[in-house]
């Protein structure tokens, strides 16, 4: 009984972690950018979806789309206002650009967080679920929204896989992640590919943010923990490896759920972090990392 | 009702609170069947509510402040059939209804005052003035902070000085009707040194419930505006 409960609850949260981390790892894989404003973009999406419904009185679907749209805009803004100027700068030495991007996106994330707190307070917000009610799964009362969340996450990740492996644009993205120089030699504009990737990333982070708002709720305080959780999942899975992140998301999601059920909800995140430290010792490149 | 589960966030302020809960709940005939303390940064309350439900209590006694919106929304989404009662700081704020998309419906919380509740003649004018200026009714801290400014100013006036010892002497003699009741303090030799005095005619606190998207006073009887009302997923064991 408890095992089934853990299986069901862990799946929804893991799927959500997976979706959140996928975009994060994709950006790193393709452009080498560790986007530390990730949590802020997710929260922006959720708060926008909340505001669309509560302040602008739009319906649930329009609200959710609005949230994803806001994430897309913020994602492009992150690229054009923060990342690209640093990458193109001639005054920052190349070997320091990574650290500048890290700091830049971190500060950008804090700016977004403070803006959200200023306009919408730091109270947690929740997005009205698209599907309400509960279903009984072998005696476990499960909110329909959890099932919906898991399904949407799997669907979106599946679509991403198709996009990357079966379309011309996707293949260009994949090629850029393997060998950026080679791609430019083939006549593809690297900047174009980056814009596509930041677009995909914005949509992924937006969907993950809105779903998170429906499932658990977010506040401006969630920004740091969300970035940290995506970061640790991605590091555990192997930086830049999408499949590694997916596996790591489920490992972390289930480890947290099992801890909450079997030990105490107070220690929920600790075993996953210990695992991360352990993996860093024996396999610094992560589970499926290439570098 | 015969059984209760205490559900508190793991923070310094809930430690004495939980001791009080453990001590007082049995006195009113509620057996504490489980006591859950969870991390204040918890976002997924599913395991917690499942644990609560497994203990089959008649009521959940809350001690929450850092969290509020999230457990309340998940309580509703998961249709946890047990009423929540106790301290829920975020529920004292009028914006709580919107933040939870009305999942707050049925939540019972302790307040010092509330919208449309004339705890004293000062309560309603203050709450209305606050709303006019800031757009929403004050949370618990709004009422207490407003009173504090006035009784501290009163003490300074009576002391005729801002020297600490003189102000403390004057504060010990405070007898101030604020928005939350009549404020008096225990003296320095009392076991509850300088604590606010609670009791009839002084400060009783009140219980409010979210009903129809509004905060409604339900206890004490003299100021109650409505009976208890719960959403349909709540299964009450007795009245």
Whole-number average pLDDT of chain A? 91
Unreliable segments of 5+ consecutive residues of chain A:
none
| Greatest interface and its participating residue counts | A-B, 35 and 33 residues
Low-confidence stretches of chain B: none
Classify the helix fraction of chain B into a percent range. Answer: 25-40%
Radius of gyration of chain A: 19 Å
Give the strand line-up of the largest sheet of chain B. Answer: 2-1-3-4-5-8-9
In N-to-C order, the SSE pattern of chain B is EHEHEHEHEHHHEEEE
Main sheet of chain B, how many strands, which sense, barrel? 7 strands, mixed
Radius of gyration of chain B: 19 Å
Q: Helicity of chain A, in percent?
A: over 70%
CATH class of chain A: Mainly Alpha
Count the E strands of chain A: 2
Number of continuous helical runs of chain A: 11
Total domain count of chain A = 1
Q: And the CATH topology of chain A?
A: ABC transporter involved in vitamin B12 uptake, BtuC
Membrane topology (chain A): Multi-pass membrane protein
Protein name (chain A): Amino acid/amide ABC transporter membrane protein 1 (HAAT family)
Subcellular location (chain A): Cell membrane
Organism (chain A): Bradyrhizobium macuxiense
């Amino acid at each position: 009984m408890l095992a089934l409960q853990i299986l069901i609850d862990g799946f929804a949260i893991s799927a959500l972690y997976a979706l959140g981390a996928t975009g994060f790892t994709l950006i790193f894989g393709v452009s080498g950018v560790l986007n530390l404003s990730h949590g802020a973009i997710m929260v922006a999406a959720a708060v926008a979806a909340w505001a669309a419904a509560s302040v602008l009185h739009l319906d649930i679907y329009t609200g959710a789309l609005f949230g994803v749209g806001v994430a897309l805009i913020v994602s492009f803004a992150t690229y054009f206002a923060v990342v690209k100027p640093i990458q193109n700068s001639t005054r920052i030495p190349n070997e320091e650009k990574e650290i500048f991007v890290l700091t830049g996106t971190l500060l950008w994330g804090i700016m977004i967080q403070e803006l959200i707190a200023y306009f919408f307070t730091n109270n947690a917000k929740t997005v009205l679920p698209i599907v309400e009610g509960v279903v009984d799964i072998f005696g476990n009362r499960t909110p329909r929204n959890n099932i919906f969340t898991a399904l949407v996450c799997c669907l979106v990740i599946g679509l991403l896989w198709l996009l990357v492996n079966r379309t011309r644009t996707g293949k260009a993205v994949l090629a850029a992640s393997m060998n950026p120089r080679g791609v430019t030699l083939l006549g593809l504009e690297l900047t174009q590919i980056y814009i596509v990737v930041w677009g995909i990333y914005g949509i992924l982070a937006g969907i993950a943010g809105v779903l998170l708002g429906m499932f658990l709720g977010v506040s401006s305080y969630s920004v740091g923990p969300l970035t940290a959780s995506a970061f640790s999942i991605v590091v555990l899975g192997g930086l830049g490896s999408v499949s590694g992140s997916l596996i790591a998301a489920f490992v972390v999601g289930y480890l947290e759920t099992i801890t909450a059920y079997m030990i105490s909800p107070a220690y929920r995140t600790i075993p996953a972090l210990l695992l991360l430290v352990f993996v860093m010792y024996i396999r610094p490149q992560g589970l499926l990392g290439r570098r | 009702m015969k059984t209760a589960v205490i559900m508190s966030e793991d923070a310094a302020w809930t430690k004495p609170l939980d001791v009080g809960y453990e001590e007082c709940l049995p006195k009113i005939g509620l057996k504490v069947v489980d006591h859950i303390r969870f991390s204040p940064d918890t976002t997924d309350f599913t395991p917690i509510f499942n644990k609560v439900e497994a203990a089959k209590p008649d009521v959940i006694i809350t001690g929450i402040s850092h969290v509020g919106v999230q457990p309340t929304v998940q309580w509703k989404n998961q249709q946890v059939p047990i009423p929540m009662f106790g301290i829920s700081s975020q529920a004292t704020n009028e914006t709580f209804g919107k933040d939870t998309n009305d999942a707050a419906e049925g939540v019972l919380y302790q307040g010092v005052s509330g919208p449309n509740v004339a705890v004293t003649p000062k309560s309603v004018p203050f709450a209305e003035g606050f709303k006019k200026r800031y757009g929403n009714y004050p949370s618990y801290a709004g009422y207490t902070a407003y009173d504090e400014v006035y009784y501290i100013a009163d003490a300074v006036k009576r002391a005729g000085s801002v020297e600490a010892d003189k102000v403390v002497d004057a504060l010990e003699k405070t007898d101030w009707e604020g928005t939350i009741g009549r404020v008096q303090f225990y003296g320095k030799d009392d076991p509850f040194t300088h604590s606010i005095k609670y009791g009839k005619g002084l400060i009783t606190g009140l219980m409010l419930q979210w009903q129809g998207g509004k905060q409604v006073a339900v206890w004490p009887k003299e100021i109650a505006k409505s009976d208890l009302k719960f959403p349909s997923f709540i299964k009450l064991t007795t009245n």
